[in-house]
């Protein structure tokens, strides 16, 4: 039970339990007169000591309160989980040489089908742990705004329509809310990253560039697992994947605004996150907490996590989601079109390889794992197909150089309307007046440039 020497999980000094009861009622977490909050606090303290408190974010260590240490712990856990999923042996020298040769061939094929030149950075064959290590900084830049967004959503939920005396209590709860959001999200993150590390085939297959250099990267162990059940030559699969990765890296490398724009959209989306407290309250019944076992607590914790990641619902979220979907579809549609053209001139199996990639995308794959599990965004594969058709139409009208010139400025990019009707795209440079979201994205980009 909380006391002066054992204040419980909410910090030193304890709380007025009557205020806490009112707060939890406002959040839908218990009825009047039904919960003994002194017993509840004691139970939470016991869970914290046993480790079960981590299900709700109460199992806090000093490392959890240090952002750098917390991030290192998360990535270490992700690598450990990835190692448990299967063997990932180092390549023999001849295997590495064959990948280098295949990448050179892929680059030569691409040269005839895009105006974006090679980056000049050698190919890398990465093991799963190396991919996690190289993308760690990129992941952190994306997920920290999400953690902040979750924390702000929790604080907003805790502060809804409060009386003056409860506002002070919410302020006291705010640090716990932020730490809880971080713990819950990082627990989810380590599992998603371990899954992606064992399934992604190339460095940027997820659709965003998190690698520190514009290198063409491939994960041979994952490619071997992927091709095992395909009735296609493994060498054809490898070179087609390298063509795709090389095309994507050329695009990200030569279109300087592309990665910052994606990051800004993701950060803005994160600030609009809301938490489904109604769904959360259905899983979390304070009056039954005292009789719950460790296993019961962990099971409820898993259900609560799902309430943190409901699909977008607010107008602002839906607008940002729409822009993200279109931009990601344009990137992957361009890669699909260019890589199919480059491989098609040389590989008889190109049509089969293209279909394999489409089926992989439709079945989920690492892109859906990242955006669905970490962001609650469910991207539609159909948009990528529409974007591929659009790029083909633009190339037909303007040639490959004119097609790639569309990436010169974000105002020139096709919109969702153009994806529905490719022939409607004219590519006029005149852009509409910026709206609030445009201005906010520009502010984020300007801040990032000042930091750099």
List keywords for this structure.
globular; 452 residues; single chain; two-stranded parallel ribbon; disordered N terminus; mainly alpha
How are the SSEs placed, and which strands pair?
Elements lengths: L16 H10 L10 H14 L11 H4 L1 H18 L8 H18 L13 E2 L2 H31 L5 H34 L19 E2 L1 H8 L6 H21 L3 H14 L5 H7 L10 H14 L7 H30 L5 H13 L2 H11 L5 H25 L10 H5 L15 H16 L1
Could you characterize the architecture of this molecule?
By secondary structure, this protein is mainly alpha-helical. Helices cover about 65% and strands about 0% of the residues. It has a two-stranded parallel sheet with strand order 1-2. Helix 1 crosses helix 7 and helix 4 (about 65-85) packs across helix 6 (about 130-160). The protein is globular and about 60 Å long. Mean pLDDT is about 80; it is low at about 1-15, about 50-60 and about 430-435.
